[in-house]
């Protein structure tokens, strides 16, 4: 498969991955975790919905938690578009592809389009949000990891090649990929906002949300979040890391929230916004891809993820066989 070239005049303008809507069982438990461990700011607490944002974010929310009685699900992946006119263009585009797409009234955000991509990923395209004062210099109010802003979401799909083509057509640039060759791609990193990724797709049973990621100011905030997690009884929720990624190069730590949704804190992304930057290939057989140092992730990090609401999970045709912590220890490597 040839690598796709950037599309410079997409059918409508997406600016970034902007928010995630998750279903949770207990808003009080979720609020404690996200406020105290990650350091997100509560913009608004309603009876059944919690709206949170990072300390440098002005827009009303980057994480919406809805109290639901059922299993933990992802309701929507939020994407910002530049203008309301882009929503009309997006609706026509999705409809033309046979994808569900309809305007929606969503509280505390402006004009919104609900659409489902060809791979079953439930999207929420939004043109505007109310704004709140940034909390970035309210240092005395910062908690936990001082999460600054949402950066990206990672998704699992059995239709990786098709997803790469679809989102390239929507203007996403391929910055990095994991693959033995251009014909054997296992993960793609796609961006709109000028750093390594907004949307990441890995091959796997899907559609499922693997994680949502928030940026932190400094390396110390990763450790501070871990320390506070341990103090508050979330020590076992620290699932992977701290460590350093191959792709994207970030220092990271992954948590599981009280409902099992996975969230990443990270820092040190680089900028990539010039056309002459070729996509970086990572060899899946090179251990430095998954863990340049330290230990590989547990098996569950590779296999567990959040399904989407009202969406059937389809099995991947090709099963990945990554180096897991369990296999690493068993083999004594
Ligand atoms: Fe990530």
UniProtKB/TrEMBL annotation:
Keywords assigned: Aromatic hydrocarbons catabolism, Dioxygenase, Iron, Metal-binding, Oxidoreductase
Disulfide bond as UniProt keyword: no
PROSITE patterns to which the protein is assigned, alphabetical: EXTRADIOL_DIOXYGENAS, GLYOXALASE_I_1, VOC
Domain of life: Bacteria
One family name in Pfam for this protein: Glyoxalase
UniProt entry tagged with the keyword Oxidoreductase: yes
GO molecular function terms noted in the UniProt entry: catechol 2,3-dioxygenase activity
Its EC number(s): 1.13.11.2
Co-factor(s): Fe(2+)
Residue ranges occupied by any VOC domain in the UniProt entry: 16-128, 149-268
PANTHER family, per database record: GLYOXALASE FAMILY PROTEIN (PTHR21366)
Family classification: Belongs to the extradiol ring-cleavage dioxygenase family.
Name of the protein in question: Catechol 2,3-dioxygenase
């Amino acid at each position: 498969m040839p690598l796709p070239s950037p599309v410079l005049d997409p059918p409508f303008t997406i600016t970034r991955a902007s928010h995630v809507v998750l279903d949770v069982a207990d808003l009080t438990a979720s609020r404690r975790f996200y406020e105290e461990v990650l350091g997100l700011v509560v913009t608004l607490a309603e009876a059944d919905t919690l709206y949170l944002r990072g300390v440098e974010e002005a827009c009303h929310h980057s994480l919406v938690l809805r109290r639901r009685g059922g299993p933990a699900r992802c309701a929507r992946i939020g994407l910002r578009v530049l203008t309301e006119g882009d929503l009309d263009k997006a609706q026509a585009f999705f409809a033309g592809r046979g994808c569900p797409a309809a305007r929606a009234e969503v509280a505390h955000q402006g004009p919104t389009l609900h659409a489902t991509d060809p791979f079953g990923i439930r999207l929420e395209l939004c043109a505007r949000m109310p704004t709140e004062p940034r909390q970035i210099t309210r240092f005395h109010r910062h908690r936990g990891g001082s999460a600054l802003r949402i950066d990206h979401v990672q998704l699992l799909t059995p239709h990786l090649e098709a997803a790469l083509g679809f989102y390239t057509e929507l203007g996403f640039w391929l910055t990095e990929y994991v693959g033995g060759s251009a014909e054997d791609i296992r993960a793609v990193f796609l961006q709109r906002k000028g750093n390594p990724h907004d949307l990441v797709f890995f091959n796997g049973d899907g559609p499922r949300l693997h994680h949502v990621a928030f940026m932190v100011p400094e390396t110390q905030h990763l450790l501070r979040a871990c320390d506070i997690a341990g103090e508050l009884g979330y020590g076992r929720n620290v699932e992977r890391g701290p460590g350093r990624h191959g792709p994207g190069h970030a220092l990271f730590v992954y948590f599981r929230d009280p409902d099992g949704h996975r969230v990443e804190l990270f820092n040190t992304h680089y900028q990539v916004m010039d056309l002459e930057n070729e996509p970086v290939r990572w060899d899946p057989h090179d251990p430095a891809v998954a863990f340049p140092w330290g230990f590989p992730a547990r098996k569950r990090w590779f296999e567990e993820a959040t399904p989407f609401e009202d969406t059937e999970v389809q099995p991947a045709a090709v099963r990945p066989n990554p180096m897991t912590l369990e296999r690493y220890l068993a083999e004594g490597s």
